[in-house]
Amino acid sequence: MNAFWNSFEALLGLGVDPKDLTFTQISLRGIIVFLVALATVRLGHKRSLSHKTPFDAVLLVILAAVLSRAINGSAAFFATLGGGVVLVLLHRLFAYLAFYSHGFGILVKGKPDVIMRDGQYDFRTMRRNHVSTHDLEEDMRLSAHTDDVSAIRLARIERSGDISFIKK
Fold first, then answer.
1. DSSP alpha helices (H): ranges in 76-132?
2. ∠ CA(158), CA(165), CA(116), 5° rounding?
3. What region, left, alpha or beta, does residue 110 occupy, with left being phi > 0 and alpha being psi -120 to 50 degrees?
4. Which residues partner with 117 through β-bridges?
5. Which of 36, 73, 160, 165 could form a Cys-Cys staple with 144, CB 3.0–4.6 A?
């Protein structure tokens, strides 16, 4: 068993300075990290890759940053993989808590804002969400299939940043 572990260490370059890693070692690390990340994200949830909210996007950015360290050797290989799993489990826990607590859901995912009501723009809310009239009208044409603002009863900027429209 010790001989197996020693050859495994040599194959992956465990304990080697990052600058001394070979192409093969980095490639094998990349393959392992890819497989572990795939299994970990599947352990999480489908939504974690959907970029539906900043809550989901933050997981992906941090997970990528953490797991890249396992590939390039700048952090301990197995500890880094474990840290990635912990991040996905934390994301899943927060999603679970947000499902059962509306207040917690607003805290981690945000809340939608009404930016148009009965064809009237709410410029203050639009400014706070960095949505121009041009942005709103473009989304209205693309999503609501109209360019007539009077045909819109309600427009919201959703937690994901998408704009939804309810016609009259």
1. 77-100, 102-109, 123-128
2. 80
3. left
4. 120, 154
5. 165
> What integer pLDDT is reported at residue 129 of this predicted model?
93
CATH architecture for residues 112-167: 2-Layer Sandwich (3.30)
Residue that the structure tokens 């937690």 belong to:
159
What is this structure's pTM?
A: 0.75
Q: Give the whole-angstrom CA distance, residue 119 versus residue 30.
A: 52
Q: Contact at 8 Å (CB) between 118 and 108?
A: no
Burial class (CB in 10 A: 0-12, 13-18, 19+), 127: exposed
Who's near 117: CB < 8 A, 6+ residues apart?
153, 154, 155
State how far the Cα of 117 lies from the Cα of 125, in Å rounded to an integer: 12
Measured distance between the N- and C-terminal CA atoms of the chain, rounded to whole angstroms: 71
pLDDT digits (tens, 9 = 90+) for 93-140: 998 999 999 999 999 888 999 999 999 999 999 999 999 999 999 999
Single-letter code of the amino acid located at 142: L
Instruction: Map out the domains of the chain as residue ranges.
Output: 2-107, 112-167
Q: Are 106 and 132 in contact (CB under 8 A)?
A: no
Please calculate the CA angle 64-65-69 and round it to the nearest 5 degrees. Answer: 110
Nearest to 45 by CA among 96, 10, 11: 96
